[in-house]
Amino acid sequence: MTMAVIAGLLLSSPGVFAQNPGGSGGAGAQRQSRIGSGTRLQDRRLDRTQERLHERTMDRLYERDLLRERDRDRIYGGNLMTPAERMQYEEHLRSLPTEQDRVQYRLQQQHEMQMRAEERHERLGRAPSEAQIRAQERQRQQEREQIYGYSMMTPEEVARYQAQIGAARTEQERERIRSEHRRQMGERARERGLSPPQ
To answer: With a threshold of 0.85, does the pTM exceed it?
Structure first.
């Protein structure tokens, strides 16, 4: 078979150029392979991004639910109070100067919630005793004083910060939360013309 005949057969074969449009030893197939690999890499990156977004959303929902539970568990009869009432209660409790004032205020609030429960024909759990309330107040005050910049924070900010620390999965994550919190409190102190908290 002559070279002319071989060349004619190659030129007349439709599969040659379809498989190798570039005409140079499989370069087209390699190019298609690279495009396919790039698409799969983009798909994997998109999947990871969506997973991270989902995780962050779940973390925020968890934090929200945790805050709600803490709110209700910490306040006797909190489930019978509106969010505004709970906020007002926390703010007033925090403004009281002495432990005795806080204990008396909590005992008064317990009595009011028991009366509200009777009016609504609902049952409340057993109220803590005065000695238990006193012990709780000491512990809560110690926890608050350990929070950097506590005196400049609202009750909601304190609860949110404690919830974030409680929800953190690793010590590195807790340290990141603490560092960001210290930065925010330092900025707040400067805005108010105060010395940074010690």
So the answer is: no
> What's the CA gap between 159 and 144, in Å, rounded?
10
Beta-carbon contacts of 137 under 8 Å, excluding residues fewer than 6 positions away, are 99, 102, 103, 106
Is the model's pLDDT at 18 over the cut of 50?
no
Q: Which tokens in the block code for residue 45?
A: 């990156």
101-122 in b/e burial notation, b at 16+ Cβ within 10 A? Answer: ebbebbeebbeebeeeeeeeee
Q: Which of 98, 101, 100, 71 is nearest to 86 (CA)?
A: 71
69: pLDDT confidence band, cut at 50, 70 and 90? very low
79 Cβ contact list (under 8 Å, min separation 6): 72
161 CB-near residues (< 8 Å, 6+ apart): 147, 153, 177, 181
Instruction: Flag whether pLDDT at 119 surpasses 70.
Output: yes
